[in-house]
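ok so heres the complex, two chains, lmk if somethin looks off
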Amino acid sequence: MGLLDRLNTRKTESHPAARAAEAAPIRPTKALKKFLTSLTQRESPVLLDLGPVVGSNVSFFGEQLGCKIFVEDIYAEIERHAKQDALEKLPEALAKRFAQADGAVDGILCWDIVDYLSRPAASALATQLMRVLRPDGALLAFFGTVAPPPVPRYTKYIVADESSLVYRDADATRGRQPVLVNRDILKLFDGLRVADSFLLQHNVREILFRKPAA
Amino acid sequence: MNIGKSVVIKGELNGSEDLTIEGHVEGTIQLRDHVLTIGPNGRIKAQVFAKAVIVLGEVTGNVTASDKVDIRDNGSVDGDIVSPRVAIAEGAHFRGSVDMQRKGAPAAKGDAKAEAKAEAKTAGTAPAAAAAAQPAAAGQRA
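and the predicted structre for the whole thing:
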């Protein structure tokens, strides 16, 4: 290793900003902008966020876009069931969880929740999401395209701007499940159509689903 | 004014000064023009109406604030929040809805159109994205 390489390594290792960036990298997103466009076409859009609550996301969607936001932290539900060793009960819990009326939601931020679910749980969740989404509403979901890492982690997605997200990892009891192929994804959300799909360089497929207009 | 750890109140709590609760309250809390602070030991099962609400403990129930709701680290809210400003810290727990009462969004609509135009002009974020920027359904459905 040359002197410059060593200096570069030391610089990267020691700099707190570099460490923070490594722990919470900023990644591009292509589908978020389209999702936002679909939301802003409504007067006071209703948004369902399935990820852990993120204060800045609430401000972004609530203050800037005027959304009414429902926060349903499904990661926490998965964690709770995993810690209680009761994952077989998760499909039933997900089927009962959403109190929203049929077609009451304009947009759903599903993030990568489906990657953490068994097939029955994913199916129960997808059924509920398709139920609460209004016709022409949008659902944004991410799917990993490579084998999950050995150490279970989940990701908090923080909106940096309409074209980028901060990926903040945190410890998890249950990790990602085997990668879903496109056919499985389409089957899972068979009541929706794929409006856009982007395969990003960091091995994530972003899919924007739309519910067909009634 | 403080409501201490050992105090349990069931019923309606009205006030005309700022209040900090460290004990348990069930029912309704109304401090229309004042700040309500739920301390780290505070446990609330109530509908809350105040000018500003700061949560360091636990709240189960709907919270309405004319100015701001601030859920601090380790604070927890299970219920619906209505307030023009909402701050939620990194380690906070929240389940429910947030309505920031911003009716109408003409600027946002304009932004959306600008975004759509910009989108048409912008090339892919990543080479792979450009290659794959087509509906997954196309050609991949069995």
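quick notes: The CA atoms of residues 127 and 189 of chain A lie 8 Å apart. thats all i got rn
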